[in-house]
Amino acid sequence: MSHAIIGFGPVGRALARAFARNGIEVSVATTRDPASFAAEAATIGPTIRAVTLAEAVAADVLFLAVRFEAHKDVATALPTWQGKIIVDVTNAYGVPPGELGGRPSAKAVAQAFAGGTVVKGFNHLGAAVLAQDPAVQGGRRVVFLAGDDDGATEQIATLAERLGFAPVKLGALAEGGLLVQARGNTWGQLIFQDLVKFD
C-alpha cells in the first residue's frame, strides 16, 4: 500500500517525520513545484519523497494535511477518488457552522472527495506534539480515528500502530468525528487531549 501526504506545513512535516522514524516510504506534495521543498523533505529522511500533486494522488492512502478551506481545491486533482482512503487531518476552526450545513467537517471533506473513503484522524494533536516520538514513558501516544467504513478505519489504525501510535477508534464520522473536529470558534472535546496508552 502506498502513502502520500498532501500539505507540507507544520502538520505535514510532523507526519513525514513519523514515517521517516519508522523507515516507511511516503510521498509529500503541495500545489507548489516539488523542487521548492525537496531539500527540506530530504532532511527529514531518505524515505520522504517530494513529488507533484498529480503524482501524490496516485497513492492508496492520502493524508490531507492542508487548511480546511483548501480541501476542495485538492479534491479537484482527480475526477473520482474511488479506491482511495483519505485521512482527514484538517481542522475547520473559524469556519462558520452554517458553511458545514450542520455536518461534521469530515463529512464535508467526504463530499468533496467523491468516491473515496474518509477517515478522520491525526488532527487532534498540535503539530509540535505530533512531530515527537510517540513512545512516551513506556506507553504510546494516542491518535483518535473516526470513519464510516470499518475496513478503512482498521487499515489506518494498523498504519498508526506501524508509525508508533496507539489508535483509538471513536466510531462513525457523525458521532466520533464530532469529538475531534473544530467548527466556528469551538473545538471538539478531544482536540488537544494528549493521551498516552499503556499496554
TrEMBL record:
Keyword Cell division attached: no
Name of the featured protein: Pyrroline-5-carboxylate reductase catalytic N-terminal domain-containing protein
PANTHER family in UniProt: DUDULIN-RELATED, F420-DEPENDENT NADP REDUCTASE
BP terms from Gene Ontology: copper ion import
Gene Ontology CC annotation, any one: plasma membrane
Sequence ranges assigned to domain Pyrroline-5-carboxylate reductase catalytic N-terminal in this UniProt record: 4-91
InterPro entries: NAD(P)-bd_dom_sf, P5C_Rdtase_cat_N, STEAP_metalloreductase
Transmembrane regions: none
Protein's organism: Pseudoduganella lurida
Keywords, ordered alphabetically: Oxidoreductase
GO molecular function ontology, one term from the record: cupric reductase (NADH) activity
Gene3D superfamilies in alphabetical order: NAD(P)-binding Rossmann-like Domain
